Amino acid sequence: MDLTSYAELAVQLVNMGDELKNPFSLRALLEETGRTEAAARLTRRDIDALCELRDELAGVFASAAEGDDVDVVERLNGLLVRHPVHPQISGHDGQPWHLHLTEGGRVADALAVGSVMGLASVVTRLGVDRLGICQATPCRNAYLDTSSNRSRRYCSERCASRANVAAYRARKRGA
Ligand SMILES: [Zn+2]
Ligand SMILES: [Zn+2]
């Protein structure tokens, strides 16, 4: 169980936006991130539940970007109550014994428990300021800042270079 990869999953779910309603896109994301069993079991009901979760997770990132630590913690605590952890030791597919946060149940439940625990772990280990919203307007993608100097401000290289070009043009106009 890698909680940082679950925190990344939360980011990916938020950034999928309405594309999350497309089962093919969500299945592709799950397969790309090694969650093949979840991808195979995904149902329409899971997708509806994940769309609701997505909105809640987006709220967490929005509050974090505004520096509202108390609101972030309240939102995450609320999500932790609604998506409780039921840890089980598992050893499937020839892997060594490892912890699963929850066993059985729906795909959406497992992904919700994972992404909420992932964010809770980042917030408590690294700080609320590690969650952010891309500053290259109009992009509103979420990101996770795992850099050693907390310097991340954009969701992607693409947005970083777009913002740099815009800043350069603004300087040139100002000169
Ligand atoms: Zn496992
Ligand atoms: Zn961006």
From TrEMBL:
The UniProt entry's coiled-coil ranges are none
| Annotated ranges, domain Zinc finger CGNR | 130-172
Q: Which SUPFAM superfamilies match?
A: Jann2411-like
Pfam families (alphabetical): ABATE, zf-CGNR
| Gene3D superfamilies for the chain | Jann2411-like domain
Tell me what this protein is called: Zinc finger CGNR domain-containing protein
